[in-house]
Amino acid sequence: MRLIHEPSEGDRTPLATRVDTADGLLSQMRGLMFRRSIPEDYALVFRFDHVAPRDVHMLFVPFPLDVLWLEDSAVQRVERLSPWTGLAKSAADQLCELPAGAAEAVSVGDRVVLAD
Question: Could you give the C-alpha distances from 13 to 35, 48, 50, 104, in angstroms and in order?
Fold first, then answer.
C-alpha cells in the first residue's frame, strides 16, 4: 500500500511506500507511541467512519511528525508536531502521520489517497 499526494496542480507523487493502517480502537490509541523511529518512506493512516474532531498528541513519541487531517481524501490541515509535547486537533475522517518533512509539499485543498 502507498500514500499518494495529488496536488491541485502538478503530478501525483508518493508520500510513503510503506503504509500501516490503524483501524481498530487499540491501534488508534497506540498510534506511534513507544517507537524509537520510523522509516523515511513510512506512514501510519488512521481511518474513521465519519468526520469528527480528531486530536493527535505526541506523548511517548520521541521524534517529530508531519500530520495530515483529511476529509474525503481532501487535505484540511497540515501540521508538524514536535516530539513529546506536540498537540493538534481538527475535523477529519482520516489522519496520516508521516516523518517530519515528508509532507512539506502538501497544502490544504490537495488530495492524499491510499493506493494498492
Answer: 27, 24, 26, 12
**23-42 confidence digits (pLDDT tens):** 988 888 888 999 999 999 99
Alpha-carbon span 7 to 20, nearest angstrom: 22
Number of helices followed by number of strands (H, E) in the chain: 1, 8
What are 61's three cell numbers? Answer: 513519541
Chain-centroid distance, C-alpha 47 = 10
- Go through the domains of the chain in sequence order and give each one's CATH number: 2-115 (2.60.120.1140)
Contact 4/15 with Cβ under 8 angstroms? yes
What digits encode the pLDDT tens for the residues 48-99? 999 999 999 999 999 999 999 999 999 999 999 999 999 999 999 999 999 9
3-state DSSP helix/strand/coil % of the chain, to nearest 5: 5, 55, 40
